[in-house]
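User: Please predict the structure of the protein below. I'd like the answer in structure-token form so I can feed it into my own downstream comparison script.

Assistant: Understood. Taking the following sequence of 242 residues as input:
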Amino acid sequence: MQGLANYARKLKEQGVTMVLVPPPSKHYFTGERLPWFAPRLPQPSSFMQFYGELVKTQELNMIDVNAIQRAHEKEFPIYFREDFHWTDVTAMTVAAAAVERIAQLEGSPLRWKHERKFEFKPFIGVESRFASRLQEREGTIEPQLVKTWEERERHQKDPATTSLEFDIAPSNDASLLPSTCLYGNSFSDGMLRAGLPEHFQQFTKISRNVTLPALPALAQGNHCKYLIVQVLDTQTGVWLLR
């Protein structure tokens, strides 16, 4: 815990503010649907105890993803049924919280701009790769976002040579939030599809293949005032700052 707090403080010293986004794994929301004989984690699990300490660590500016998910679990599906990822509707809700946290830190009146509109369509999740019976159907009906905004142009990068995935064309719109970087895996892809980049004057997606110790130099080199770090409970190496 202290290592993460020190990491965030060092980022702050170079002019970069960290915003931590840690989605809990799907099993925290689906455990009650397991058969009676399936093993279960002790509650609260070691990670959720750790998570509780993260929430209290002010330097991390943590988005309490678990609280957001619990607050909305009766409004829409939090996770796909045949996929371990959160739905893009959940991703948008969390992305909105991250945007509004940064706006609060900036003293900006900006709020999340995109309507949370979705419709249910067939969806084949990644878990169908491991269960052939799921492929008998065209797909489970799942919530899909309806895009109500225009995406700004994205400039694709070569992660192998730049350690970046893309950036967006800069904007001079003073109502937008300052330049921000995002580091994350396939969960952060949902936040991108939900329209996260369009809330910033400049936005850079850092390669998911770099390590946490490499982020400060990349954030500073790309003139990012904020660094959103999305990390899963299962990414032990990231939590250990490797």
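That's the full token string. The mean pLDDT is 89.
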